[in-house]
Design goal:
The chain has two domains: 124 residues, Rossmann fold (3-Layer(aba) Sandwich); 131 residues, Rossmann fold, CATH 3.40.50.10090. 37% of the residues are buried. The chain has 262 residues and is α/β, with parallel strands linked by helices. The longest helix is centred in the C-terminal third of the chain and has 15 residues. The protein has a five-stranded parallel beta sheet with strand order 2-1-8-9-10, sandwiched between helices. Strands 3-7-6-4-5 form a five-stranded mixed beta sheet.
Length: 262
């Protein structure tokens, strides 16, 4: 019988990952615990508009995710048919880099696929070493990590945020978790710390398994050491730490564990 694995990515981003997991021999259960929606309050929209109107004042623009590229480039296209030539574009992660390139933007400072592809990796690049007096705009979602911006400010940069989207718990998440639990033991996968926190909250609120919290002993796949440490603090006992959140890295970690199990 095929091992089951929960895929907790937002539905719109899950298709390629599902296929990759299925190619490893898993039965993939769709349990999205995040959904991405554009900000829509008048204050949030006006804040974005002001950042975009001032875009020619920035020396660097950093995009933290594919969602940041999707929403950010839509705003830039609306107000800047010809982008300022002085601004340098940076991406966190290969998928974000590819999204920027697809949008026709010249990217510098994007990490290679083999690297961790997080804020810490970008901060370690040569381009981020000397940023004193540089104006930097970070495209991200609401309430993202502040480590990148705080670190750049500590190095003397002036940092602003353009918060384009919000992450929310899908209305159907509780039902999806209940359905997946009814199929029995499984592997778990998350692509961010927020996804991990959401899936744990949903599991804790669900009807108890037998024994209660049995899912803490299920194999859990996480993207990177930071999320792995969070999982350990939550009590998970089988944590598979992928090098990053790309499908190739996540599948490599899964495959290694499958080989060990056999």
């Amino acid at each position: 019988m095929k091992p089951r694995i929960w895929l907790t990515r937002p539905t719109a981003q899950a298709a390629k990952t599902q296929l990759a997991f299925e190619n490893l021999g898993f039965k993939v259960l769709s349990v999205p615990v995040l959904e991405i929606t554009p900000v829509d309050t008048s204050a949030a929209v006006q804040a974005i508009r002001q950042r975009i109107l001032d875009f020619d004042r920035y020396d660097m623009a950093i995009f933290v995710s594919q969602n940041a590229v999707h929403y950010g480039c839509a705003w830039l296209d609306q107000f800047w048919p010809q982008l300022p030539t002085a601004c340098q574009f940076f991406a966190i992660g290969s998928a974000t880099r590819e999204a920027l390139l697809d949008a026709g933007l010249p990217v510098v400072g994007a990490m290679a696929v083999s690297e961790a592809m997080n804020s810490e990796s970008l901060l370690a690049t040569e381009q981020m070493a000397q940023v004193r007096d540089q104006r930097i705009l970070i495209f991200r979602g609401e309430g993202g990590r502040t480590h990148l911006g705080d670190s750049l400010q500590a190095r003397g940069a002036q940092v602003d945020y353009c918060e384009l989207y919000r992450r929310a718990l899908p209305s159907a998440a509780e039902q999806a978790v209940a359905q997946a639990l009814s199929e029995g033991d499984a592997w778990l996968s998350v692509h961010s710390g927020e996804s991990l926190q959401n899936v744990v909250s949903l599991l804790q609120a669900s009807k108890p398994t037998s024994p209660p919290d049995a899912w803490l002993s299920w194999p859990l796949l996480v993207p990177g050491q930071r999320v792995g440490e969070l999982a350990a603090q939550m009590g998970f006992s089988q944590i598979l730490v992928a090098e990053n959140a790309t499908d190739s890295a996540m599948c490599e970690a899964l495959e290694k564990q499958l080989v060990q199990n056999n």
